[in-house]
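User: Show me a protein chain along with its predicted structure.
Assistant: Here is one chain, sequence first, then structure tokens.
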Amino acid sequence: MSKRVLLIEDDQDTLELLSEALRREGFDCDTASTGQEGLARQRTQPPQLVILDLMLPDMDGFDVCRQIRTHSTVPLMMVTGKDDLIDRVVGFEVGADEYLVKPFGTREFTARAHALLRRVDEYAEPIRPSSVLDFGEVRVDQEKHEVVVRGEPRHFTKKEFELLLCLAENEGRVMRSSDLLKRIWDYDDSIRSRTLDVHIGRVRAKIERRPNAPQIIVTVPCIGYKFVSPQTAA
């Protein structure tokens, strides 16, 4: 069954080029040329992948991403001509899973779309029976993609969940920042270091009793982070 993709792009030539490239690769491509139209389509016909241009006529692409992230963890790729470091960082901070700078070839574009969906599909495949990590205060269900903290379910984006799961699966082990960047974002350059810090902060805000004095996800200076079971921390 083909994957449904929503492409939000205001330049008609680019829209036609990218949508045709996606269709050749077997995707079912829906399109929108404004942010509001894209948000409406994303809600009424939820896609399995959103591809979003940042420069839209009616609203900033970052704002479109922020609005999508209030209710959906759908994989999202930003495509843009903005190559500034701050734009890349903001893109990941507001919830993008991939960031592709124009100009780029259609083969690279479709390859990144396939790769992003493959990473998502890994979490949809049947998981071993011991897929639930229960630490008392924090319960992580890998199969259901759910996190329960002190009896209350918490909403996690895809990247936040992947980050928490990676740390929890390695309870008590120090995870290097570079390894986390490579595993979660498939990048190892310094551009994404700020992205990791931001996501760690968001995860802490959702699971720690005092996020400013974390006891579950602790920082190991100059190396990375370590997950400490709340039962041990207590």
